[in-house]
Amino acid sequence: MAGEPINLTNQFLIAMPGMADGTFAGSVVYLCEHTEKGALGLVINKPIDIKLKNLFEKVELTLDRDDLAEEPVFFGGPVQTERGFVLHEPLGGGDGEGGHYNSTLQIPGGLEMTTSKDVLEALAHGAGPKKVLVTLGYSGWGAGQLEDEIGRNGWLTVNAEPGIIFDTPVEQRYERALSLLGIDPRMLSQEAGHA
């Protein structure tokens, strides 16, 4: 009898030490969507050499929010690295509408992810969501691929905590995500069979 499909939407994927794929080594990924067709997530702890103010200049906008101007843009994953993804707190009164921007994915029980330029325009004018994480690219898995990687001990999973995404210094996000599982990263072995 086949097991029930797992749904890891609104969870963190935490790369195990020794992950062979250098792209994801040491990564914490926020899963925006996970269905039988595959999964989509954004890496939340790998900043790149671009500040938000510079990204806004590239799309011919001026960012008038001092709290965001010097924030880094993140490497969201290896897919569509020329495209921006904005992970942000849910907007509105929880009525389920979510029609704030042209292209927003409401993550059940979690955050929102917007890919349309109108969220950047709102931010540029001092409006929009207060807490944001902007990435270039995303992480994607085909049907069954993520489940297979988890089965081979590539990832740990835990319910996401927005405070780790928006309020925790980047260099502490991996350890803080692990702490949600009660795990000290020094206790994890890179090799199976060792304690």
How would you describe this protein?
Helices cover 19% and strands 31% of the residues. It has helices at residues 52-58, 66-69, 118-124, 145-151, 162-166, 173-179; strands spanning 11-15, 28-35, 38-43, 47-51, 72-75, 79-88, 104-106, 112-114, 132-142, 155-159. Strands 1, 2, 3, 4, 5, 6, 7, 8, 9 and 10 form a 10-stranded mixed β-sheet that branches. It is globular, with a radius of gyration of 17 Å.
Compile the SSE list and pairings:
Blueprint: E1 11-15, E2 28-35, E3 38-43, E4 47-51, H1 52-58, H2 66-69, E5 72-75, E6 79-88, E7 104-106, E8 112-114, H3 118-124, E9 132-142, H4 145-151, E10 155-159, H5 162-166, H6 173-179
Features:
31% strand; alpha+beta
Q: Main β-sheet, in a few words?
A: 10 strands, mixed
Low-confidence stretches: 93-98
Task: Return the structural class.
Answer: alpha+beta
Gap between N and C termini? 33 Å
Radius of gyration: 17 Å
Work out the number of β strands. Answer: 10
Q: Report the β-strand fraction as a percent range.
A: 25-35%
Please estimate the helix content. Answer: 10-25%
Number of helices, counting only DSSP H or I runs of 4 residues or more: 6
Mean pLDDT: 89
The dominant shape is globular
Order of helices and strands: EEEEHHEEEEHEHEHH
